[in-house]
Amino acid sequence: MTDRDVLEVLAKVSPRAAKSRYIRETLNIPKSSKNAKTVLQCLGRLQAKGQAQAYKPDPLGEKKYWFITEQGKQSLKNEQ
């Protein structure tokens, strides 16, 4: 599963990614998508289980990237 696949799974699990410009731009998700869950909540759940980690490659940069473990990718697949 590539990072792109993971983002696509996240978008299916929770299409509203308005709070994360990086994810929205990567997947071309419109700001007006309506869904109670957000991709960030989904990532937050994975992060709480230690299956995802957020990092900013550039300390001054705005974009936040996510590293998702294989276990995290598997639990995303199961959620789909």
Task: Please give a structural write-up.
The protein has 80 residues and is mainly alpha-helical. The chain has a single domain, classed as Arc Repressor Mutant, subunit A. 48% of the residues lie in helices and 10% in strands. Strands 1-2 form a two-stranded antiparallel sheet. Helix 1 packs parallel to helix 4.
Beginning-to-end CA distance, first to last residue: 14 Å
Radius of gyration: 12 Å
The general outline is globular
The largest beta-sheet arranges its strands as 1-2
Gross CATH architecture: Orthogonal Bundle
Q: Beta-strand percentage?
A: 5-15%
Proportion of helical residues: 40-55%
Please report the total strand number as a whole number.
Answer: 2
What count of structural domains? 1
H/E element sequence: HHHEEH
At CATH level 3, the topology is Arc Repressor Mutant, subunit A
Spans of at least 5 consecutive residues with low confidence: none
Structural class by sheet pairing and helices: mainly alpha
Number of helices: 4
The multimeric state of the shown protein is single chain
Please tell me the overall pLDDT. Answer: 64
CATH first level: which class?
Mainly Alpha
- Largest β sheet strand count, sense and barrel closure: 2 strands, antiparallel
